[in-house]
Amino acid sequence: MEPEPASKTSAIFEITGVTKIYQTGEVEVRALNGVELKLQRGEMAVLLGPSGSGKSTLLNIIGGLDRPTSGSVKFKGEELAAASDRELTLYRRNHVGFVFQFYNLIPSLTAWENVALITEVATSPMSPADALALVGLENRMHHFPAQLSGGEQQRVAIARAIAKRPEVLLCDEPTGALDSATGIIVLEALARVNAETGATTAIITHNAGIRKIAHRVYSFLDGRIASCVVNEVRIQPSEVSW
Ligand SMILES: Nc1ncnc2c1ncn2[C@@H]1O[C@H](COP(=O)(O)OP(=O)(O)OP(=O)(O)O)[C@@H](O)[C@H]1O
């Protein structure tokens, strides 16, 4: 077998010794406690772990929404932990797409308009129609959110996140509000986006069955990564048992 090109195998994120401490009055919560993690360029990663183990905290730090208390978070060699607010804003705007459990679409705008809102301020976006087609919504472009199912609304949210061609797509419980059949369609959209755009994709989930669609699975425990498993064989989202 041909070796993979270096650009496919190199780490896009190198995270070392990351801690995050939340101080609420007298109470100190150590949300992250020495995280070591390398996310490989272009991979689909699934992040698993019990409630409160630090998954969202780490995703927010990777996405430039928050900073670690200590440690290093390098994106393509650039230190995010030391970035200014303005640098983090530019980083998020230029490089990161977010998908959350709830879709946060603007109810008075159509699917197309929700996506166009982002593409209008991006530097080299795909067209809203192309982004919506990538998630299988070419026939729903002019519907308003209230006229779409939950899974369709989540796919609009994915189209909105990827239309600016981010290098990184971060998804926090993207199927958390969906039934299994709808969740599978959303996972299919994410797998297709990952394969076709090459965006490094990280998905937080409570559903351990989803782990088999990933290239790698990172398991959290008590604010650390307890294990990293490489899936030699990946399954299709349609084969996920919920
Ligand atoms: N803003 C905050 N202030 C104080 N504590 C926080 C804050 N955000 C998170 N925490 C605490 O940090 C710990 C890790 O939270 P985090 O949301 O990262 O966990 P999680 O693994 O994503 O959990 P879940 O699966 O329930 O979403 C928890 O104990 C949580 O209560």
From TrEMBL:
It comes from the Bacteria. CDD domains: ABC_MJ0796_LolCDE_FtsE (cd03255). PROSITE patterns: ABC_TRANSPORTER_1, ABC_TRANSPORTER_2. GO terms for molecular function: ATP binding; ATP hydrolysis activity; transmembrane transporter activity. One of its GO terms (cellular component) is membrane protein complex. Signal peptide: none annotated. InterPro entries: AAA+_ATPase (IPR003593), ABC_transporter-like_ATP-bd (IPR003439), ABC_transporter-like_CS (IPR017871), MacB-like_ATP-bd (IPR017911), P-loop_NTPase (IPR027417). Residues 13-242 form the ABC transporter domain. Keywords: ATP-binding, Cell inner membrane, Cell membrane, Membrane, Nucleotide-binding, Translocase, Transport. Belongs to the ABC transporter superfamily. Macrolide exporter (TC 3.A.1.122) family. This is Putative ABC transport system ATP-binding protein.
